[in-house]
Structures
1.
Amino acid sequence: MINILLFAELQEEAGVDQIKVDKAGVTVFELKEWLLQQYNLTSLSNTMIAINESYATEEDRVKDGDTIAFIPPVSGG
């Protein structure tokens, strides 16, 4: 089981701030594709990715017990 954290507009699109799912062993890219299909998260393409609070790439594999965060760009003034 993995825990997916969503922030900002991703939370709004999904209607939840976190998702628990049995997807251990997939790449971050495959996880993003699944999220796009399941939750129609169109903002995923512009996000930073972290696994267990360390930045990750789309090629990284997710392990059982991992927490994956998708962090949209931050804007401010």
2.
Amino acid sequence: MTINTGVDPRRLPAVDALRGFALLGILVVNSAQMMDPYVVEGIRRPGAPLWDQAAVWLVTALATFKFYLLFSFLFGYSFTLQQTSAERDAGNATARFLRRSLGLVLLGLAHAVVLYSGDILLTYGLLGLILLCARRIGPATAVKAAAWIYGVYVVVLTGLGALATQVDDEEPAAHQRIAQPLAAYRGSPGTVVQENLDRLPEALLGSLLMAPGVLGAFLLGLAAGKRRLLASGGADRPRLLRITAVGLSAGVPGALFFASAADGPLEARWQLLGIGVGMLTAPALSAAYACLLLLLLHSSWGDRVRRLFVPAGRLALTNYLGQSLITMFVATAYGLSLYGQVGPAAVLLLAGAVYALQLALSTAWTRRHRHGPAEWLLRAITLAGRPGRAGTQRGPEREAAHLG
């Protein structure tokens, strides 16, 4: 069946538009880590020209921590839609979600080993089980739990950061650790996979450290989904404006401090405290980003914004994996072997070009197909069978599932 508009009436446009927008932030952050060993090690590139310093600083301030929280919020929101869908189909919602989680874990492991060790799908697949256990709690309880989980997490992190300001600047050994991945990623496809395998334990530890933030955002999304805040008429303009104003007021100063501590001009010993402050204020800026996009959706620009972002959001899983595939082709021995040779400003331009390409391809694809390739696979695992034809589905929330 051909869909001429590229917009599926069975989905929630706001959810897809937010997801499509969040793909840009995910790409900007991940491409920097996939292309630049200094970013991976968390150290400053010596002798970097001003434009490269500015690019790193802007990515840290505007994108780092903000968009994975937005993606996680949308995962929690879409969980409520999936539960409603399964119940209306008289299906076993728990079994469906368990199969879906297994699919995410398997895709995440493959992604981490073959392409990018900083994968988030594995984390979603595992932490989603906690979301399943919490599915019966009320919205107010979910918000309180999220506040406690995230609040304790960032207080501990900020406290450790304050203690770290008394320690000397970055260790010289950090620069020496760059040599191994440079050789591995420029070597052969085999050395690329081996390097990803070697990094996997560290990546899993990183996922564990991110878990409180992801889980907190899951629970906020669960609460929002139960209240249907992203459905038509779910959030009024005055409320969106208030959240935007508060989010920018709290989020921008924190983001500026975080970037200054991570990338200068503050000394490197402020980095851990900067991470704590950045994590503390990231939800505020994420909320401001989301509300600004929702305001655009309800403005005279709404149709244009939907046409731009909704198709990419419908293919979020395919686009997420595609971003890694393209970037690793450029960076490693899978293709051009430019790892560590492209400055941050050029990487940022590359990310913009890849995102523009994905927006165009997503629009073209959704005019002819209901699912992207990765979405079709994950849905087949979820349903334990071939996904049905478009005419067999009911309800506006039927397909509004995060990452597929």
3.
Amino acid sequence: MTEQGVGRVLVIGAGLGGLTLAHALVRAGIDVRVYEADDGSGERFQGYRIGLAEPGLAALRASLPRRLYDLVEITSGSLTGPGLLFDEQLTVLSRDLAGPSAETRAVDRQVLRRILLGDLGDRVAHGKRLRGFAEEPDGSVTARFADGTQATGAVLVGADGGNSVVRQHLVPEVGLVDSDLCGAMGRTPITDRFLRLVPGRGTMVKGPGVTLMLGRMQFDREPSEAAAEFAPGLDLPYRDSYVRWVLLVPPEHPAATESGDARELVLELIDGWHPDLRDLVRSADMSAVGRSKIYDRPMPSWPVGRVTLLGDAAHLTLASGGNGANTAMQDAVRLSARLAEVDRGERDLTSALGEYQADLLDRGNAAVEHGKEALKRFVRPRSQATP
């Protein structure tokens, strides 16, 4: 048995995984503070609709206050119905495209993040960009921020995404793996015409050399109205239902490494495609169109100490696997469970974090491999690309 009390936990990063961890720790009665680099004034461009499978939903049920979990469910959407495969002229090639299970729900990433910020109050500090950290002789960890402030706790968790500053300091030899792809994405408000393109769990459009993926985000209840009724005091943005579209720019295309207008790039690449597809892209909400390079990264083990990692900071997965958020949320509840054991005096911190790390690497690296395999459905290997 050990002395009870794990002490304060410092979480670097207020993304989905870090915020789920914060809620789980609060539920376990453990002191936690979250430090986020963004200033909190707006939404981050990190994609739109994601699918939450049962592991992710179970993690939220185990972590969130009931009213917040209910709000997640109420603002989610169905992912039932056929998965369609079209050619570029909307000729149906298959009505049985593999996709998420019936238990998976569609959620808007930005709405979900706002829900996860609910009830945490001053436990979350914005505008705190991490510069470095140090494990002190007295067994504490000190985080140093760019604004000159610092914070001290018993454990520091890097939940700061694919470009994690914590990981760069903890395991500097591990870098991102470039997939040679660039994703151009956007969202377009739903109309009956566009909804017919995505009647079920998802649609893939295979054209000459490129693939366009479509997914509907049809809220069961509009988020701001749902929050007003079920979680008074929680401010959620008004959000229309939409179709999310993503096009993977092939590596041989010059635009794969260039910056520029994502919508015009997609329209260029789908020139001559069916008018419904071109109009879907043309009608996008221009405040929600963007592009980014696509990376992944498996993770080796590192010396177990008072600093650990969670989510994309540890195991960055390709979006093609659809498992990044779900895996991060599982990380959160499993880390919280290990820290709760320490807090109750049932085990020592080193063994708890060692067990967590082994589990994290096993599940996380499997998720990275799943994403690589899933990517093969969307793009051809470079050796098969058209010169």
4.
Amino acid sequence: MSLPDPAELITLRAAAALLRVSHPTIRRWISQRRLSEYRVGASPRVDRREVRGLIVLVSPRQEMQR
């Protein structure tokens, strides 16, 4: 497994804001191994690409038909 690009690592709070969930939710997902945690110094970070991978399409947008 290769390390992510350091420019793609974001804070847990930034990840929470991106996904519109709470900071504890991000922590829980890390402990459940849904997200990988990296350290930059003493600061925990997650890979932005991995976070974006948690965004899923629920249903396609349909144009209104008249």
